[in-house]
Design goal:
By secondary structure, the chain is of the alpha/beta class. It folds into three domains: 93-193 and 413-580 and 613-638, Rossmann fold (3-Layer(aba) Sandwich); 196-408 and 667-671, Dimethylsulfoxide Reductase, domain 2, CATH 3.40.228.10; 687-804, Barwin-like endoglucanases (Beta Barrel). It has 32 helices and 35 strands. α24 packs across α26. The protein starts with 15 loop residues before the first strand and ends with a strand.
């Protein structure tokens, strides 16, 4: 069933607009965080929760993946971290009575804000085909139905298993093992939609799909370029690190289409200066670049550095280049051919401005470039990030103190999920180690990423979907297509802490499995369990929830997956059809032939599939340390895993470029690359739209109706447009319009998508650029409009027109 995205839970007639802020955090942030915490958790529970977040003997924040400093404040959290904790640790609950009172049709009429505000899920629920309401179901029956559905598939590739970034290392490792035991690599995850472009570009150029810096490097850098990122909302604790870098003498350049309060001035509520003396100016220079112009910016920097070295010498690190890199000559020729007028047109900056930025890079003895989705969600994102690497390689800014690449990951442990094997294109080395550890043959054929999974579901080639956390329907592009694709499935399964839109836009049958959150105490096997996570800079540490969970019989993600593995592969397995492991499935073939496989009996006499992973699933459910022992046998860098995370200790995973200037590329060298310049050309009468978060939001979780840094109150359906563009298009500030996206597909046919009733807000954007919040505008992003190489949806470069509302 496809429905229009709901619009009725936030009264847009109450929307107010005030001046955008020029300072972030401060006392107002503390007050707002405490108000929301007390409203959701009460005073006592709030204190218990917040004093344990990001502490060595506590739990990792369920929000962003920014790393923890070695010496931690008693209040080691930010405003949005406090909101994330309050959202998860709320005392509100959603149980069988709630579902009996609210039909599925009614729930479909509510948006994610309303759904999330109802509280924590407490009981497994099932929606029968044709039913009007979810009904309660036992854990055994729910997991049994899932196992039966997987056995009934004609081919394992008819199943898709999604993962969000919140899942722990232990749960993620078991989850990917479950999926490969079923016989597929269909493991799309949220990385496909955010930092896949980073991984693609970095793996190709420096041999690792992660950043190469630590917090200590941030503190030691002399120049930090923050491009396409809004840390004041998305990673507020990063502001403390930038403040410390400033105190140590760093220059900071902010590159972004929108001025962001957090990069203008930071009032640190943990210091006297922040509370009483006006705080710290963060960005020494604000570069207001046009959307999609970042590739041209870094080409301009590289061109300037090469010219300066030719004129005066001493600019490039020739020792590093000669020893560790390849491809400089071709890159230098390409930059010599680059023309300043085109670089100006792409960036919206004149040559003097571009050279001024490049001079800051030339004069810096150690430079870090940080970025987020503002660089990764364009068609030319991978070439853009290759150009970032080119600039850093010129001066040897990889593998030394205070220098390197810093992709700032969003969701807590999204990077750890990928390290644990949540990836549709696993390496042969990983699969070989997995086979040896668990005595089976994992499938080798690459699986579906997020966009390919949606296409396959919509084409009827997938029958089963399971989401481990997250909100797939609201996180993905092309909302109407996604909802239609979900409706075509036989069974959708979601492992979740809170209700969201993915629970109401379902397959013919649907199961909700409630789970423990990061903040919840997890007592299993007669002891309190802990899990582990990897932060945005490759550091691993433990996390142990301390709060009473919302229901006594809630299972952790680890327990849910362990029991499902046992039902499929272990003593709890039931005889019947089992997954195929042929490894040569044609993804373009719609019709599937059934494949029967023999089963064999284990020592207890239960039947189990012949080619499935062998493990003691029930023992791992009772002791997560056993999972970590398997991880250390499969994944390099996790030796002595349990001992190294004991008592909250942190360890860094191996990082060749950072640790030893070692590059695991095809030839062992870091690669300069040549990337033909690309940037968006905006048709007459149109705007280029970027989707973004409000301040009261984390990914698809909406905490409230405000974005106080941008001056938006009590509403979300706004579009930020330059005043001159508003006048040119014949509108006025405050006009209500429809946003209509335009995209020409590979067949040459112009496609349109519509998001209704958005208020125009005059804002300091570049001309012909606009911005609006997601998930409300995800409907405008075409499924087939993706970044080259990475396949990431182009949510930061959507061509739209503003259309007057019909009278």
């Amino acid at each position: 069933m496809v429905t229009k995205p709901p619009q009725n839970d936030i009264d847009e007639t109450a929307l107010r607009v005030s001046k955008a802020k020029k300072v972030a955090v401060g006392v107002p942030a503390v007050v707002h965080a405490l108000e929301m915490s007390i409203e959701q958790m009460g005073a006592v529970r709030s204190a218990r929760a917040l004093l344990r977040v990001n502490q060595k003997d506590g739990y990792d924040c369920p929000g962003c993946a920014w790393p923890d400093p070695a010496h931690r404040h008693v209040a080691e959290f930010c405003e949005n971290g406090a909101k994330a904790v309050a959202e998860e640790a709320t005392v509100r609950t959603v149980g069988p009575v709630f579902f009996a009172e609210h039909s599925i049709d009614e729930l479909r009429g509510h948006d994610d804000f309303w759904l999330g505000q109802q509280g924590r899920l407490t009981h497994p629920m099932v929606l029968d085909e044709g039913a009007t309401h979810y009904r309660p179901v036992s854990w055994d029956d729910a997991l049994g139905e899932i196992a039966d559905q997987l056995r009934a598939l004609a081919d394992p590739d008819e199943a898709v298993f999604y993962t969000s970034g919140r899942t722990s290392n232990e749960a993620a490792f078991l989850y990917q093992l479950l999926v490969r035991g079923v016989g597929t690599n269909n493991l799309p995850d949220c990385s496909n939609m955010c930092h896949e472009s980073s991984g693609s570009a970095l793996t190709e150029t420096i041999g690792i799909g992660k950043g190469t810096v630590s917090l200590e490097d941030i503190y030691a850098a002399r120049l930090i370029i923050v491009a396409g990122q809004n840390p004041g909302t998305n990673h507020p604790r990063m502001l403390s690190a930038l403040e410390k870098a400033k105190q140590n003498g760093a220059k900071i350049i902010a590159v972004n289409p929108l001025p962001e309060a957090g990069l203008l001035r930071f009032e640190n509520p943990q210091t006297v200066k922040g509370v009483l003396l006006g705080g710290t100016p963060i960005a020494d220079q604000f570069v207001q670049i046009r959307l999609g112009g970042d590739q041209a910016l870094f080409q301009a920097i590289g061109k300037h550095l090469l010219e300066a070295d030719a004129h005066m010498g001493g600019v490039l690190d020739h020792g590093f280049i000669d020893t560790h890199t390849t491809g400089l000559d071709a890159y230098a020729r390409a930059m010599a051919d680059a023309e300043w007028p085109e670089l100006e047109a792409a960036t919206g900056l004149d040559e003097l401005e571009l050279r001024d930025i490049a001079e800051a890079v030339r004069l810096s003895p150690s430079t870090i470039v940080c970025w987020a989705m503002g660089l990764t969600q364009h068609k030319n994102s991978v070439p853009t990030l290759r150009e970032v690497v080119n600039v850093l390689l010129l001066q040897g800014n990889i593998g030394r103190e205070g220098a390197g690449v810093c992709p700032v990951r969003g969701h807590s442990n999204v990077q750890g999920d990928r390290t644990m094997g949540i990836y549709e294109k696993p390496s042969e080395a990983f699969l070989d180690a997995l086979d040896e550890e668990f005595s089976f043959a994992a499938p080798r054929e690459h699986g579906f990423d997020t966009v390919a999974a949606i296409r396959a579901m919509d084409a009827g080639r997938v029958r089963f979907f399971m989401g481990m956390g997250g909100n797939f329907v609201s996180a993905t592009p092309d909302t109407e297509v996604v909802e239609r694709a979900m409706a075509r499935l036989d069974l959708t399964v979601h492992v979740s802490t809170k209700l969201n839109r993915s629970h109401v836009m379902t397959g013919r049958r649907a199961i909700i499995l409630p789970t423990l959150g990061r903040t919840d105490r997890d007592r299993r096997g007669g002891r309190e369990q802990r899990v582990s996570v990897e932060d945005s800079m490759g550091a691993v540490h433990s996390s142990r929830g301390r709060l009473s969970p919302p229901a006594d019989d809630l299972l952790s993600e680890v327990a849910i997956i362990s029991r499902l593995c046992d039902a499929l592969f272990g003593r709890g397995a039931r005889p019947g059809r089992t997954p195929s492991h042929s490894g040569d499935v044609d993804h373009d073939q719609v019709e599937r032939l059934p494949a029967e496989h023999p089963v064999r009996a284990d020592a207890a006499g239960s039947a189990r599939p012949a080619n499935t992973p062998q493990a003691d699933w029930r023992a791992m459910e009772a002791d997560y340390a056993l999972i970590r022992r398997h991880i250390q046998n499969v994944i390099p860098g996790f030796e002595d895993y349990n001992a190294r995370i004991d008592k909250g200790r942190t360890f860094f995973l191996p990082n060749g470029p950072r640790d030893a200037r070692r590059f695991a590329t095809s030839d062992g060298f870091a690669h300069f690359t040549v990337n033909p310049l690309e940037y968006p050309r905006i048709p007459a009468g149109r705007l280029l739209l970027q989707t973004l978060r409000s301040h009261d939001q984390y990914n698809t979780t909406i905490y409230g109706k405000d974005d106080r840094y941008r001056g938006i109150h009590d509403g979300r359906r706004v579009v930020f447009v330059h005043a001159d563009d508003i006048a040119e298009f014949g509108f006025t500030d405050g006009t209500i319009v429809d946003l209509v996206s335009e995209w020409t597909g590979v067949d040459g046919v112009l496609q349109e998508r519509r998001a209704e009733a958005f208020r125009i807000v005059s804002y300091a954007t570049p001309r012909r650029n606009a911005a609006a919040y997601y998930p409300e505008t995800n409907v405008l992003v075409p499924l087939d409009s993706v970044a080259d190489v990475s396949g990431t949806p182009t949510s930061k470069s959507v061509v739209v027109r503003l259309e007057a509302r019909a009278a």
